[in-house]
Write a structure and sequence with these properties.
By secondary structure, the chain is mostly helical. It has seven helices and no strands. Bound molecules: 2-acetamido-2-deoxy-beta-D-glucopyranose (3 copies). The site of one 2-acetamido-2-deoxy-beta-D-glucopyranose (NAG) has 5 residues, from helix 3.
Length: 210
């Protein structure tokens, strides 16, 4: 699904030279808050599967994550033309949405870390599939957050705080992937992190790069 969507975006960028509209700060804040709800829902689902040990709903975790990725990538595309936000109240709105979404991702990653043993025991395919979903999500939100941080004036405290929170998401994603890897790999966390950083930091959708 991710790949199909990506091809669609590439076709839009390079094929049709379609003029892309900017998003308003209100639209960005709404989207962030909706993504946060989706993130919290995915977390609840993970915790429920962990406590019931019912493998049936596991595919819904992937669907929730794929949906977040699709929304995030669409927003990134539209944000390329969005100017820096100068109104303090608008900055505050976007920052609150951003913090909300970050919080949901931290809780989702912690839920996955704390449920890794159970998920792997009720369906072994989660061992590879969940880390792969996490990497796709992490890569998409990395580009998204970079663009959002770019909307805050460089000297604002929002900019500094948003950067700090973005780094926390990376750490929690690494921990979640690591939890699924435990007991199966001879590698250590440091080499894992080095490997995935080069993957994650392909900055093909960064602000202004298209
Ligand atoms: C998942 O379930 C196990 C076993 O019941 C429990 O020990 C663990 O704390 C649960 N994880 C979370 C994140 O609630
Ligand atoms: C494990 O998950 C995979 C992929 O979601 C599914 O195809 C398979 O049927 C599941 N196996 C069991 C035993 O539930
Ligand atoms: C940030 O820079 C702008 C323009 O250089 C200035 O007007 C504004 O007061 C600065 N804001 C802060 C919080 O330093």
């Amino acid at each position: 699904m991710h790949h199909i969507f990506f091809s669609f975006v590439v076709a839009l960028c390079f094929g049709t030279r379609w003029a892309v509209a900017a998003l308003t700060s209100g639209e960005i804040a709404n989207s962030l808050n909706e993504l946060a709800q989706q993130g919290f829902a995915a977390k609840e689902l993970v915790l429920e599967i962990n406590s019931t040990a019912d493998a049936g709903p596991i595919p819904h975790i992937y669907t929730e994550i794929d949906t977040m990725v699709a929304v995030v990538l669409t927003d990134v595309k539209f944000m390329v033309n969005t100017p820096i936000i100068t109104d303090q109240a608008e900055e505050q709105d976007v920052y609150e949405g951003y913090s909300n979404f970050i919080q949901s991702l931290l809780e989702l990653m912690d839920a996955l870390s704390g449920s890794a043993a159970q998920l792997k025991s009720i369906n072994q395919t989660t061992k590879n599939r969940v880390p792969s979903e996490i990497r796709i999500l992490q890569s998409a939100v990395d580009a998204y957050f970079y663009n959002i941080i770019g909307l805050f004036p460089a000297n604002s405290s929002y900019n500094a705080q948003a950067n700090n929170q973005k780094a926390q998401v990376d750490t929690h994603c690494f921990q979640a992937v690591w939890a699924f890897d435990l007991g199966y790999s001879n590698g250590n966390q440091a080499t894992y992190q080095a490997r995935s950083k080069s993957y994650v930091h392909s900055r093909w959708m960064k602000r202004g790069s298209l």
